[in-house]
Amino acid sequence: MIRVYFATIFCTVCCVLSLSAQGQTNVSLKKVLPFPIGAAVNAKYLKNNVAYRQLLLAQYNCITTENEMKFKAIHPSKGVYNWINADYIVDFGVKNNLRVHGHTLIWHGSLPLWISKFQGDSVELEAIMKDHIRTVVSRYKNRVASWDVVNEAFNDNGSYKKTIWYKILGPDYIARAFKYAHEADPNAILFFNENANEASPLKRNAVLKLMKKLMARNIPIHGLGMQMHTRLAQPNSGITTAIKTAAATGLQVHLSELDIRIRPYAYSDSTDKAQALKYKFIVTQYNALVPKKQQFGITTWNITDNDSWLNKSKSKPEWPLLFDKNYKPKKAFNAIINSF
Ligand code: XIL
To answer: What's the mean per-residue pLDDT of the chain?
Structure first.
């Protein structure tokens, strides 16, 4: 009995020491939050950075592929698919019981030249789109739970972006992309993903109109992703309206790429606190305004300030995430934890 007692104490102490040695904390987002919490990840860090991997597993229960499933990465030339990195992330997710979100099937960004400079007709491009969606979605059937089927289709003024897909296939490419994805994996939860919903009422309305149209036509769309790459200066009212508008669709709502830029302000104790308040505001508003059955979850765009896409240039540092460059929780992390 006494032996068991001391063994338990010994294990607990070891566990706490090892967690703090890795710069982690023993409170965890995934345990505290009442909805799924994810992070975008990249294969390079997952493979090579132990602290990154451990922080992910300690804090999050979902992952999104940050770049590895984008067209250029996964389908670099006609008929050639490169699965190595995407497979690595999906296998890692499945092995570790993380819900895996696929990003992204149809987008104007990260296109290989054979698509961005495409010269053929609509029949040929339609066949390429169909093949791409079917091939990628079928490969990960029942392992990737959900997809951003179409990403960023609108300009901030609410007009359609004149992407190669739009120009050659017309606006209905969106509906057809969803059909192809659904045919390839009828169980996958399919999202339309858009940026700047919180900053642009025109874009918000355009997205809402499209969601209603697609649903009225019984197009297999199940969710609306709002990227929420936002900033300290973004007024809270836009965030609230964006979340309410998304919830009103009745679709699953995913805050899919959350980060909060500090710039153009300098990083200081007070901007760090202001960022914490903004994170707390977003996360609590999401929980309050999105009905439980529509809460797909919140995903931050990577894990620490060290690996954020906004922090690639040494001369212009950013501090957009919940963990700092040393993998330590920031005020924003504590503010979220303390609100639940
Ligand atoms: C970004 C990645 O984070 C960067 O590493 C990459 O260089 C460019 O793309 N909206 C999206 C994401 O939907 O795919 C983008 O990701 C960020 C903006």
So the answer is: 94
Residues forming the active site = 152, 257
Q: Is 127 exposed, middle or buried (0-12, 13-18, 19+ CB in 10 A)?
A: exposed
User: Which atom of ligand 1 has the smallest separation from the CA of 103?
Assistant: 14
CA distance 203 to 35: 27
* Ligand 1, atom 9: closest residue by C-alpha: 67
In three-state form (DSSP H/G/I as H, E/B as E, the rest C), the secondary structure along 269-338 is HHHHHHHHHHHHHHHHHHHHHCCHHHEEEEEECCCECCCCHHHCCCCCCCCCCCECCCCCECHHHHHHHH
Query: Is residue 9's pLDDT more than 50?
Result: no
pTM of the model: 0.93
68 ligand 1 Cβ < 6 A: no
Backbone angles phi, psi at 196, to 5 degrees: 60, 25
194 lines ligand 1 (CB under 6 A): no
151 lines ligand 1 (CB under 6 A): yes
Q: How confident is the model at residue 4 (pLDDT cuts 50, 70, 90)?
A: very low
Structural contact between residues 182 and 188, judged by C-beta atoms closer than 8 angstroms: yes
Binding site membership of 227 for ligand 1 (Cβ less than 6 Å): yes
Question: What is the reported pLDDT for 312?
Answer: 83
Quick: pLDDT tens for 232-245: 999 999 999 999 99
Check if the beta carbon of residue 192 is closer than 8 Å to that of residue 221. Answer: yes
- Confidence band for 36, pLDDT divided at 50, 70 and 90: very high
Mark out the alpha helices in the chain (DSSP H runs). Answer: 2-21, 29-32, 43-48, 50-59, 71-74, 84-95, 113-116, 122-139, 164-169, 173-184, 201-216, 236-248, 269-289, 331-338
Q: Are 275 and 332 in contact (CB under 8 A)?
A: yes
Give the Cα separation of 297 and 286 in Å (integer).
9
d(CA 82, CA 88): 12
Instruction: List pLDDT tens digits, range 78-89.
Output: 999 999 999 999
Which amino acid is residue 218, in one-letter code? N
Which residue owns the Cα nearest ligand 1 atom 3? Answer: 309
